User: Which sequence fits this backbone?
């Protein structure tokens, strides 16, 4: 196909997705594309849409659960789009920049705001798409503009209000891929204090969550005025095992790959956890992880 010839240097075949997923599960992608520029993303989407060929976007691999077996959809991975540029109190970053690297580089530049994301896995594009955050703040608070390519390949600049950010969500147009983000931050004089603050957040996260295991982040969103982890713990789910997957004994809202787990093992735990909480407390949990 013409696009496969034009982007030949970016196309890989039969790629094991578990190498790109933070919980290290998932099947094999027949076609895996790693664009380096927004124009390449536009070329790809324009062609795929014209062909009626389905595609999936894979960022840093957190918050993501692909199936076992063969994935026929084209998998688009913008990880090579990882630019970082400081312009006064603004930074322009590529969608593929790892979130922790964003935190580190902004802190080094004396710019506060995204330090609240210390320890959050994944990449900037995915962080914006799901409005990643912690109890200290969310990325939407710093977003000024988002550069996307729509499903027809056209380029669009979206302002923060266009995305209607909410708790772990945004209203990104269907089929769109984020290529870059402009963040407006707050200059500080004491860079070391900013680094210490972010480092403190990271230490808290490492103490309370299983950050040293293979996992994709939280299984479920917190219900209003409640903690999903507390509900899961109360339902007796810590340590529940299925195949090579286990609900973390440290924090019940995390599932870990402890012994070459399959996606099916993880999915079973997700379903069991939601059902048990519903039976135990009457609360219907909403998934935070996105299953393909």
Assistant:
């Amino acid at each position: 196909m013409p696009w496969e010839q034009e982007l030949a240097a970016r196309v890989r075949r039969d790629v094991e997705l578990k190498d790109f997923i933070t919980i290290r599960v998932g099947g094999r992608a027949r076609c895996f594309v790693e664009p380096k520029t927004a124009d390449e993303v536009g070329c790809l989407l324009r062609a795929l849409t014209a062909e009626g060929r389905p595609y999936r976007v894979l960022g840093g691999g957190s918050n993501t659960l692909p199936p076992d077996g063969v994935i026929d959809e084209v998998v688009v991975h913008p990880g090579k789009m990882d630019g970082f540029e400081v312009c006064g109190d603004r930074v322009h970053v590529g969608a593929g920049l790892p979130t922790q690297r964003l935190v580190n580089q902004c802190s080094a530049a004396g710019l506060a705001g995204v330090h609240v994301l210390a320890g959050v896995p994944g990449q900037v594009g995915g962080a914006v798409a799901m409005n990643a955050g912690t109890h200290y703040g969310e990325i939407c608070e710093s977003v000024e503009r988002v550069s996307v390519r729509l499903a027809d390949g056209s380029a669009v600049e979206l302002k923060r209000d266009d995305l209607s950010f909410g708790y772990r969500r945004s209203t990104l147009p269907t089929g769109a891929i984020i290529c870059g983000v402009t963040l407006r931050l707050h200059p500080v004089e004491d860079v070391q204090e900013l680094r210490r603050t972010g480092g403190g957040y990271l230490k808290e996260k490492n103490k309370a969550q299983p950050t040293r295991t293979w996992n994709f982040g939280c299984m479920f969103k917190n219900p209003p005025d409640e903690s999903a982890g507390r509900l899961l713990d109360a339902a007796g789910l810590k340590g529940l095992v299925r195949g090579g997957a286990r609900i973390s004994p440290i924090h019940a809202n995390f599932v870990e790959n402890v012994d070459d787990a399959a996606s099916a093992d993880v999915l079973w735990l997700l379903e069991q956890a939601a059902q048990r909480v519903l039976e135990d407390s009457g609360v219907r949990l909403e998934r935070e992880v996105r299953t393909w």
Summary: The mean pLDDT is 96.
